[in-house]
Design brief:
Oligomer: single chain
Distance between the termini: 48 Å
Largest sheet: none
Structural class: mainly alpha
Number of strands: 0
Radius of gyration: 22 Å
């Protein structure tokens, strides 16, 4: 019986923690704060990458030019269209 009570209290505390976290994230978003990691490439670099891809520059070359990974370069078109990668 004591274990059941402890489990119930732990579950209640977990629910409170989730609720506080979600309300904190919502408040930060409402205040206009950016959440998550800083972007690897600036907006100007992303435009340069899009131009390069449109002109047939290899992904590997663009990655070397910007000192980043091929995956980051391949993600840029999705970012431009508003889809998260």
């Amino acid at each position: 019986m004591a274990t059941g009570v402890l489990n119930a209290v732990a579950e209640f505390e977990r629910d409170l923690l989730i609720e506080r976290t979600q309300s904190g994230l919502a408040r930060a978003k409402a205040e206009g704060k950016t959440l998550g990691r800083k972007p690897t490439l600036t907006a100007e670099q992303r435009r340069f990458v899009l131009d390069g891809l449109a002109n047939g520059v290899p992904v590997a070359q663009l990655a070397r030019d910007h000192k980043t990974t091929r995956q980051t370069i391949m993600r840029v078109p999705n970012m431009a269209s508003g889809r998260a990668a």
